[in-house]
Prior knowledge:
By secondary structure, this protein is mostly helical. It is about 75% helix and about 0% strand. The longest helix is centred in the last third of the chain and has 39 residues, at about 190-230.
Amino acid sequence: MSASAKAENAPGRVQLERPIVKPLSMMARPSKNPESRRDLFATCVVVVALLIAMEVTSRYVPDYIMPSPVAVWNAARELFFTDPYHVAVTLVRLAIAVAIAMAVGVTLGLAMGMLPAIRPYLKAIVVIDTGIPALSWMLVAVFWFKNPETRIFFILLVILLPFYALNIYEGMRALPKDFVDMIESFRPSRWQVLRYLILPHIVPYIFLTTKSVIGYAIRMVIFAELVASAVGIGARMNLAQSTFRIDQVLAWTFFLVILNLVLQAAVNGVEKLTLRWRAEATVR
């Protein structure tokens, strides 16, 4: 036994208590928040109130103005068995467009943040893009592209891309100066700065942007299908409108609302799983 060990175990020596250091994952484990349960309860109350208002209104106006909830439910059951192909086509278009817009927009935002020489030009392109109405892009796509799939993809890409580019750029600007000074003290390469500092910092911004654009992307893909395609939910809604089937229009509308809620919940789940190390702050 060494001399230092003998001194530590010597009788009468006061043993200093060593602090127990918990792993970071345990310290940052988020507590259960009743906020989500209150949101779910409020959503259920609003849905029930809308159904009651719909039922009461349907008793005083013709069916082609406001059908009853039962009629809309029957139309939804009919569409569920006859149009799953159109639903699948719309979902595939939406997934591909959001994924590619995310990849290109994040790359563009990183370039805006890390390349000062071309930053003003990239910002000018993105800002000009945000000022062009969605209807203009749809009409231009009809002139430029013959393939309906190319038209819809182009419309969604140019509309969703600025959201990712600007949010990622603003996220890089929000980097804490202390973190930047600390990592710069190690004289890292540009790739190491990107990997160890910037990419972990912008992940919450990517999820935030995705949750923000999902509902907008669903509306845009339906609008694009209404204008530029004969396949998809937008095309089926156009057919229902032309045949005076307002029950089918409302059934598709309810389906899109449910689809938005499901996709939002899925992104929230992936976000919580990816950022489970981050503690949630609560404000009184």
